[in-house]
Design goal:
186 residues, alpha+beta, 3-stranded parallel β-sheet, globular, binds zinc ion
Length: 186
């Protein structure tokens, strides 16, 4: 399934891929569906100030450089490690195409449940890029701990992901993008 969207130069979502609704229903529910998302600001859909700042910096960099950037990240389900790459492609007049491509997935025998903590609740910091959580001062992959976990988390970006150098697009697996997404920019 391809999830992709087009942003205008103020980071408003102006189009989403046809499969978006299925993905949204599977993952986030009705509020994330196309008719609810188009016209909204991307940053309103991202949880955690450090994550918004990280994403804002990438969007600025892609617009300034005019180059396609690839951001590898993890987006795990409770039982499965899933590696994706997000491609950010500059289009005309400050608009951007953002698409998410599954590179591989690895089913485990563990169940790692992750829920967003309420304000003031005791919680682990969790990196939204590598999915590691901070445990006793160290960033660890929750699947590497070897037991089922039920985690309450605060969304942030770990030091390693913050400092990772930008990656240019180098033939990462990339599924075809529907013309309608690019054509929405005009
Ligand atoms: Zn990280």
């Amino acid at each position: 399934m391809l999830t992709a969207y087009t942003l205008d130069r103020r980071d408003r979502i102006i189009a989403v891929s046809p499969e978006w609704d299925q993905f949204a229903l599977d993952n986030d529910g009705r509020a994330a569906c196309q008719d609810q998302v188009v016209g909204r600001r991307l940053m309103d859909a991202i949880t955690g100030d450090p994550v918004r700042m990280f994403m804002t910096a990438i969007l600025l960099r892609v617009r300034a450089s005019g180059q396609v950037e690839a951001v590898p990240y993890r987006c795990d389900s409770p039982t499965t490690k899933r590696r994706y790459v997000m491609l950010l492609e500059p289009l005309a007049e400050g608009t951007l195409l953002v698409s998410h491509h599954l590179e591989n997935e690895e089913l485990t025998e563990l169940v790692i449940r992750v829920r967003t903590a309420d304000f003031g609740q005791r919680a682990h910091q969790r990196c939204s890029i590598c999915c590691r959580v901070k445990e006793a001062g160290l960033w660890v992959d929750p699947f590497a701990i070897g037991v089922n976990l039920d985690l309450w988390v605060i969304h942030t970006i770990c030091e390693d992901c913050k400092q990772a150098p930008p990656q240019r697009y180098r033939g990462h697996q990339r599924r075809a993008i529907p013309d309608t997404l690019v054509a929405s920019v005009s």
